[in-house]
Design brief:
- The structure is a single chain.
- The protein is α/β, with parallel strands linked by helices.
- It has 3 domains: about 5-135, Response regulator (Rossmann fold), CATH 3.40.50; about 140-310, P-loop containing nucleotide triphosphate hydrolases (Rossmann fold); about 315-440, Helicase, Ruva Protein, domain 3 (Orthogonal Bundle).
- The chain is about 50% helix and about 15% strand.
- It contains 18 helices and 18 strands.
- The strands form 6 sheets. It has a 5-stranded parallel beta sheet with strand order 2-1-3-6-7, sandwiched between helices.
- The two termini are about 50 Å apart.
C-alpha cells in the first residue's frame, strides 16, 4: 500500500476538484477542512504529501509546515494560496515546505510537482523504515531478556548511547558485548555512520597497528600502496575494540592519543591524521589489576573507564535462558529451512541447570547443534551435549557410539567442512581430526 495525499482546505469545491484530479492520476487522497482535523489524519494514516491552504480557519498553513514536519519528518508539504506573497513563499520553504503555489496558476504545475514530492517522500519513508529495521536488528530491542541484571545494563547503555562518551564494556566471554556495542551505536546520533568491530586478540601487534591506523606506501615490505586504517573508515561513526586487554603497550599509547585529541600518525607517515570516532571498548580481563601489574597503561585505563557497563553472566539471569533458547531455535530452524519444532519441558529444565561458562555464545552454539541433530518434530534433552546429562551414560561404549554419530551428523551438515564442524562442536580442529581418526568416520 502506497503513501496517501492529504488535502487541508476549507474551500469544499476546490478541495473536491483537486481531489478528483489527483485520484485520476492514481493517488489515494484524504481530505480535511482544518489544521486540527488534518493533523489527526496525519498521525493516523500513512501520508506522503500534504497540500495545505495558507489561510485555514484555525491556523496559518505556512506555520503548519513546521508542525507537520515535527510529527512525520518524511512528509512533504506544498502550500497553496489564493494571494501569493514572496515573504510567505520564502518562509514556507524555510519551514520545510517542498513548494509554494498560487491557486489558479498551478493547473499545469501541480501534477508534476506532486509527482516529484511523492517520489521524495517515498524515498525518505523507505529510509525511515530501513532505520527502524536496523534498530530492530541491532538496537536495544534486539537484546533479549527480562531479568533485573540485563535490564539494568540496558538502561545504562541507553543513557550513554545519546552521548559521545567512551564506553568500556566488561563481562565474561560470550555475554554479548558486541551486541551491546552495536545497540549503543545504532541508537546514537552516529547511527548513519559506520560501525566497525575489531577483535584485538585476532591480530599480531604489527598487523593490528596497520589495520587500525593504516600505512603509507613503502612503510614496510609489501606495503605497495597507501592504506586507510579502520579508524579512518569509521570516521563520524563508532569503532568497537573487543579484547582490548590484549593490545600491546605501544599500541595502547597510540590509542590514548586518539582518545585525547582524535589524531594519530600512520605507519611510514610524518603528518597526523585527524578523525572523529566514538570508541567502545570491551574486555573480559580486570584492567585495574592488569594496570597494577604493569600490563596495561593506567592513564589509558582511567580514560576508558569513565563509563563502564558490566554485562551479567548467563548464570545470573537464568530466567532469560528459555526466551533466548526459543529465539535461537527459531533462528537456526530458519537457517536449515525447517518448521520451528516443539520443545519438551525437560529440555528447558536441563538448560536452566547448566552452568553456562561460555554464556550466551555457548547457548547459541548448543541450540545450533540441537537443530542440526534433530530428526523428529520435538526437541528433547537427549539431544543436548554429554555434559548436560550428569554422567547418566554408564556405558562408555554407548557414549562413544553416540559421540561418533554426533560428529558424523555435524560433518554431514557442513558438507565435510571440518573447520565449520569444529566450530559447531565447540572443539579444536586438531581434536576433531583425532576423533575422526579414532572413530574411523568416513565422509559421505
Amino acid at each position: 500500500m502506497g503513501l496517501s495525499i492529504l488535502i487541508i482546505d476549507d474551500e469544499i469545491k476546490l478541495g473536491e476538484l483537486l481531489s478528483r484530479i489527483l485520484q485520476l492520476e492514481g493517488y489515494t487522497v484524504l481530505r480535511a477542512d482544518s489544521a486540527k482535523s488534518g493533523l489527526k489524519l496525519l498521525e493516523r494514516e500513512e501520508i506522503g504529501l500534504v497540500l495545505s491552504d495558507v489561510k485555514l480557519p484555525d491556523a496559518n498553513g505556512v506555520e503548519l509546515v513546521k508542525k507537520i514536519k515535527e510529527i512525520k519528518p518524511y512528509v512533504e508539504v506544498i502550500n497553496l494560496t489564493a494571494y501569493g506573497s514572496i515573504s510567505d513563499g520564502v518562509l514556507a520553504i524555510k519551514n520545510g515546505a517542498f513548494d509554494y503555489l498560487t491557486k489558479g496558476d498551478d493547473n499545469e504545475k501541480i501534477i508534476p510537482l506532486v509527482s516529484k514530492a511523492m517520489d521524495k517522500a517515498a524515498l525518505q519513508y523507505r529510509v525511515m523504515q530501513l532505520e527502524k529495521q536496523m534498530a530492530a536488528l541491532h538496537g536495544f530491542s534486539a537484546i533479549l531478556g527480562q531479568s533485573a541484571a540485563i535490564k539494568e545494563a540496558i538502561a545504562l547503555a541507553k543513557k550513554v548511547a545519546q552521548t559521545d562518551a567512551t564506553v568500556l564494556l566488561l563481562g565474561e566471554t560470550g555475554t554479548g558485548k558486541e551486541v551491546f556495542a552495536e545497540a549503543i551505536h545504532y541508537e546514537s546520533p552516529r547511527k548513519e555512520k559506520p560501525f566497525i568491530a575489531v577483535n584485538c586478540s585476532a591480530f599480531s601487534r604489527e598487523l593490528l597497528e596497520s589495520e587500525l591506523f593504516g600505512y603509507k606506501a613503502g612503510a614496510f615490505t609489501g606495503a605497495l600502496k597507501d592504506k586507510k586504517g579502520l579508524f579512518e573508515e569509521a570516521n563520524g561513526g563508532t569503532i568497537f575494540l573487543d579484547e582490548l586487554g590484549e593490545m600491546s603497550p605501544e599500541l595502547q599509547a597510540k590509542l590514548l592519543r586518539v582518545l585525547e585529541n582524535g589524531s594519530f600518525i600512520k605507519l611510514g607517515e610524518t603528518k597526523t591524521t585527524t578523525v572523529n570516532v566514538r570508541l567502545i571498548a570491551a574486555t573480559n580481563r580486570d584492567l585495574q589489576k592488569e594496570a597494577d601489574a604493569g600490563n596495561f597503561r593506567l592513564d589509558l585505563y582511567y580514560r576508558l573507564s569513565g563509563f563502564t557497563i558490566t554485562l551479567p553472566p548467563l548464570r545470573e539471569r537464568s530466567g532469560d535462558i528459555e526466551q533466548l533458547a526459543h529465539h535461537f531455535i527459531k533462528v537456526y530452524s530458519a537457517k536449515v529451512k525447517r518448521a520451528v519444532p516443539e520443545v519438551d519441558a525437560n529440555f528447558f529444565k536441563a538448560l536452566g541447570q547448566h552452568n553456562w561458562k561460555g554464556n550466551i555464545r555457548e547457548l547459541k552454539n548448543v541450540i545450533e547443534r540441537v537443530i542440526i541433530l534433530l530428526d523428529d518434530e520435538t526437541i528433547t534433552s537427549k539431544l543436548l551435549p554429554y555434559e548436560f546429562h550428569d554422567g547418566n551414560h554408564t556405558d562408555a561404549l554407548d557414549l562413544s557410539s553416540v559421540e561418533k554419530q554426533h560428529i558424523h551428523k555435524i560433518l554431514r551438515h557442513t558438507k565435510g567442512n571440518k573447520t565449520e564442524a569444529a566450530r559447531i562442536l565447540g572443539i579444536g580442529l586438531a581434536t576433531l581430526y583425532r576423533k575422526i581418526e579414532e572413530y574411523h568416520i568416513q565422509a559421505d
